[in-house]
C-alpha cells in the first residue's frame, strides 16, 4: 500500500462526489475493496456501481399460498389438484417434492406444499408414500398404465 493513499482517496472523492467504487479504484490504482472499506471507515457513502439492489417490498413469488395440510379428506386426485406445480428449478428447501402430472406434459411440476421436517414430502404425500402399513395397503395406490 502506498503512502498517502487515504489522502488521495479523500481528495478524489471531494473532487468527484458522484464517482463510484470502480471509478475511484481505477483512478487511484488500488483495489475496489480498499475503496469500499476506506469509505466505510470515513463515513462516506459512495455511488452505486450500477447494480440494482433488492426491492424493499418484493411481490409474492407464487400466486398460490403455501399450505400445510395435515388431514385432507378427499381423493389423491383432489389433493393433487391443490398442488402448486412448482418447476424443478424453482423448488425451495421447504417444498414437497411429490411429482404431480405427467413429466412429458408442459404443466408438470411438484406439489410445493410445506414438507414435513426431515422428510421429502408434505404430510399427505408422506402418508401416500409409506402406504397403509400392510402389503395390501402399500400396493393400494398403484398407477394403472
UniProtKB/TrEMBL annotation:
Region: Disordered; residue ranges are 122-145
What InterPro entries does this protein map onto? GcrA (IPR011681)
Query: Which Pfam families does the UniProt entry name for this protein?
Result: GcrA (PF07750)
Q: What protein name applies here?
A: GcrA cell cycle regulator
Amino acid at each position: 500500500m502506498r503512502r498517502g493513499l487515504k489522502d488521495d482517496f479523500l481528495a478524489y472523492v471531494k473532487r468527484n462526489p458522484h464517482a463510484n467504487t470502480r471509478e475511484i479504484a481505477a483512478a487511484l490504482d488500488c483495489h475496489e475493496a480498499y475503496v469500499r472499506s476506506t469509505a466505510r471507515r470515513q463515513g462516506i457513502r459512495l455511488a452505486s456501481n450500477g447494480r440494482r439492489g433488492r426491492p424493499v417490498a418484493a411481490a409474492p413469488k407464487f400466486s398460490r399460498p403455501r399450505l400445510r395440510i395435515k388431514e385432507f379428506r378427499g381423493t389423491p386426485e383432489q389433493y393433487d389438484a391443490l398442488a402448486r406445480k412448482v418447476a424443478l428449478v424453482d423448488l425451495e428447501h421447504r417444498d414437497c417434492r411429490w411429482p404431480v402430472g405427467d413429466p412429458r406434459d408442459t404443466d408438470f411440476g411438484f406439489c410445493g406444499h410445506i414438507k414435513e421436517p426431515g422428510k421429502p414430502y408434505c404430510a399427505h404425500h408422506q402418508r401416500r408414500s409409506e402406504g397403509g402399513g400392510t402389503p395390501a395397503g402399500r400396493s393400494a395406490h398403484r398407477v394403472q398404465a
